[in-house]
Amino acid sequence: MRHTPRYLMTDPQEVKRVIRANPWATFVSPAAGGLVASHYPAILDDTATQGDDITILSHFGRPDDELHELGQHQVLIIIQGPHDYVSPSWYAPGDLVPTWNHVTAHLYGTPHVLSEEENYNALSMLTDHFEQHMPQGRSLSEDDAGTRRAANGTVGLRVKVDRFEARAKLSQNKTPDVIENVTAHIAEHNPALADEMRRVHGNSSAEGQAHRLDVG
User: Fold this and answer.
1) Strand extents, DSSP E, 16-162
2) Under the phi-then-psi rule, with left for phi > 0, alpha for psi from -120 to 50, and beta for the rest, what region is 171?
3) First vs last Cα of the chain: how many Å apart?
4) Model pTM score
5) Which of 11, 145, 165, 183 stands the most exposed, by the fewest C-beta atoms within 10 Å?
6) What's the CATH class of domain 5-169?
7) Using an 8 Å Cβ cutoff, are 102 and 169 in contact?
8) 210 secondary structure, DSSP code
């Protein structure tokens, strides 16, 4: 990940927020046969996390666990937050270089493969996490025997993140008036990304406008 200082996210709590809001992850492993990538849900395991520590809970479908050689080496977990194309038509005249705004986190750690019972508990936790907001949310406990049979086709994993690299590229290199214009255009079709821009810039547009008036 490119380390442009103005775009870096270094606060673990902010990274946790991005994970909570974007729980579909890409897992990349340097397996013996070459790089392997798979896509699975990933949530924070708050039962195993304290302070600024980050622990990811997920599961793989068999035989992905063998392809990734889970537990034998470090993996990269990519969390992709909101992202979108930024048109130079939203910039001042003469500024013609387009870009792509995005929020992305790279998490590194070695998976701990869960036991059969731990895996079922993890699957229950994952299901409850996503079902809690459903009008008629379901639970694996409604059919313990049947869902345990289905769970045999999966392998649970817990990853304590050793380090992370995160980037929020959200037009920080632009003037407050351009940032405001870009945010307004993005909000028309990508409100989640617009919210990230507002979060990063806060009152910077108003402060920048006041500064221009002071020196004007």
Assistant:
1) 24-31, 34-41, 43-44, 55-61, 75-86, 99-109, 111-113, 154-160
2) left
3) 39
4) 0.91
5) 145
6) mainly beta
7) yes
8) H
The tens digit of pLDDT for each residue in 159-180 reads 999 999 999 999 999 999 999 9
Q: How far is CA 81 from the centre of its chain?
A: 5
What contacts 166, CB < 8 A, 6 or more positions away? 8, 9, 10, 14, 15, 18, 103, 104, 105, 106
DSSP state, residue 170: S
CA 172 – CA 4 distance, rounded (Å):
11
Domain residue spans in the chain?
5-169, 174-216
Q: Tell me 88's DSSP state.
A: G
> CA 88 → CA 103, 130, 154, 155, 174, distances in Å?
20, 38, 46, 46, 11
Q: Over range 35-45, report the average pLDDT.
A: 97
Q: Output 187-194 pairs: Cβ under 8 A, ≥24 positions apart.
A: 189/84, 190/82, 190/84, 192/21, 192/81, 192/82, 193/82, 193/83, 193/84, 193/101, 193/102, 193/103
pLDDT over 70 for what percent of the chain? 94
d(CA 216, CA 210): 10
Tokens of 115: 């036991």
Ranges of beta strands (E only) in 64-162 are 75-86, 99-109, 111-113, 154-160
Q: Is the pLDDT of residue 3 over 90?
A: no
Gap between the Cα atoms of 184 and 176, Å rounded: 12
Is residue 81 within 8 Å of 106, Cβ to Cβ?
no
- Token look-up 């380390």 returns 3
Residue 173 contacts by C-beta under 8 Å, 6 or more apart in sequence? Answer: 6
